[in-house]
Amino acid sequence: MSTFLWGAATSSYQIEGAFADDGRGPSIWDTFSRMPGRVRNGENGDVACDHYHRYLDDVQLMAGLGLQAYRFSIAWPRIVPERGVVNQAGLDFYRRLVDALLERDITPWPTLYHWDLPQYLEDAGGWPNRDTAYRFAEYADIVHSALGDRVGDWTTLNEPWCSALLGYANGEHAPGRKEPAEAVKAAHHLLLGHGLAVPLLSGNIGITLNMSHVTPATTAPADVDAARRIDGIQNRLFIDPVLLGAYPEDVRADLAHLSDFGHVKDGDLAVISRRIGMLGVNYYSPALIAAGEPAPPGSTPWIGAESARWADGGRERTAMGWEIDENGLLDLLQRIVKDYPPIDLYITENGAAFADAVGPDGVVHDADRIDYLERHISACAEAVNRGVPLQGYFAWSLLDNFEWAHGYGRRFGIVHVDFATQKRTPKDSALWYAARIRKGGL
Question: To 10 degrees, the CA torsion angle through 73, 76, 79, 82?
Fold first, then answer.
C-alpha cells in the first residue's frame, strides 16, 4: 500500500507536564496520582516529559525519524479549566504544535479525550453523569473551532473501556471509584459524548477502542461462556453501539444485575452510531479466558464477567506481563471486517514495555521491542493481503512517559527519556522504525 500512513502516538497527561501552567486546570489524574497508594512510588504527571515546553524539539525528533503522522491528545482541562471558561493559552499551545507538525509535513492526529477529565466535572458526577457527555461536545466544538482549519483527522475518545471500567468499576485508574453500576452508565455516556461530537467535527472522524482477540482456554462450556462474557465487556459493549447502533442483548443480560439500561434514552443509539470515517484499534495482547475466580489484587474490571480469568497461553511476555501474540491482531482485524459494516481501520496504538536502559555506549539496545513491532507490523501486512482495509499504523509510544498507575516504571517509548534531565535518546527500535517507514508501503 503506497498510501499507508506511518506514525507514533502519545497522550497529553503522559507527556506534557506543565500541570498548572498558563491557566490549565486540574484533571482527575492530577487528583488521583496524589492519592496515597494509587500510583507507583507516589509519582505523577506534573512534569512527565515536559513536552509542553519542549514540543519543538520533540517535533524535530519526529521529523528526523520520518514520521508521517503524530497522534497526540488534547488536554481538556488545558482548554476548559473551569465550567464556562475557555483558556486561549491552552488553545494557542495546540495551534503552535499543529503548525510545527505541518511545517515538517507531519499530519496531526489529535484525540480529544485520553482520560484526563477536568476535576470539576468529576466533582459534578463524572462520566456516570449524563451532563458530562454534553460538556464533552461543547469542548469538542471549541477545539474544532480553533484547529479545524489545520486538522483533518480527529479521534473523539481513546479507549472508553479504560475510562469506564478501570476508572469507575475497580478503581485502578482515575477517578478511582469502585461503583460497577455507575461504570455501566459511564460507558454509555462516553459513547454518547462521542456521538454528540461527531457532527461538530469535520474531515476524517473516528473513535479508538482497545480491543483484544478473545478465545476460550478450552472447549469446555464454562470456558466458552467466560470468553463470550469477556468479549462482550471488552469489545462488543463499545463497538456494537458505534457501528451497529445497538447494545448486544447477551451483554445487557450479563449486566442486568447492575443496570436495567434505563440511562439509555430514546435516540441515544442513533446519536452514538452516527456515521464515522474510521475506527482506531489499540492492540497489545490476546485474551485467553477460562472460567473461575480472577486472581487478586485488583484484576477484575470485568463487570458482567466476574467469574472469568486470564489463562496462561505459554507465550513470551512484556514487562507489563502481557502475552505477545501478533496472530491475535490478525484475527481481530479479520473479525472486525466480518462482523461489522465496512470502515477504514487504523492501528492507533501497538507497542510493548521492556526493561531497557541507556547502555555504557550511550545506546539503548531494545531488540525485544524491535521483534515485537516487526511481528505485529507483519501481521498488519498479512491482514491487508487478506482484504482488511487497514490504512495506517501508530507505534505506542513515541516517548517513554508516565505510564498511569505504573508511574515511570514502565517504558513503552521508541525514544528513551531520562526523566531527571529530560534527555531524549532514540532507541534501536526508533532507528529500525525509521528505516521501516523509509521502505514505504506495508
Answer: -170
Residue-averaged pLDDT of the chain? 96
Per the CB < 8 A criterion, the answer to whether 308 and 300 are in contact is no
For 140-268, strand residue ranges (E) read 153-158, 204-210, 214-216
- Per DSSP, the three-state class of 200 is helix
Q: For residue 239, is pLDDT > 80?
A: yes
Question: pLDDT, tens digit, for every residue of 270-280?
Answer: 999 999 999 99
Dihedral sign (CA 200, 206, 212, 214): positive
Of the pLDDT bands very low, low, confident and very high (cuts 50, 70, 90), residue 296 is low
Q: Roughly what angle, to the nearest 10 degrees, separates helices 131-147 and 88-103?
A: 50
Kindly list the catalytic residues: 349
- On whether the CB atoms of residues 317 and 325 are closer than 8 A, the answer is no
Q: What is the CA radius of gyration of the chain?
A: 20
The residue segments making up the domain with residue 235 are 5-439
State the CB neighbour count (10 A cutoff) for residue 432: 18
Q: What grid cell was written down for 204?
A: 476524517
- How many independent structural domains does the chain possess? 1
153 three-class SS: strand
CATH number at residue 12: 3.20.20.80
Answer yes or no: are the C-beta atoms of 352 and 367 closer than 8 Å: no
- Grid look-up 465550567 returns 83
pLDDT in tens, 161-213: 999 999 999 999 999 999 999 999 999 999 999 999 999 999 999 999 999 99
Q: In the beta sheet, which residues pair with residue 287?
A: 214
Least Cα distance to 82 among 93, 73, 90, 74 occurs for 90
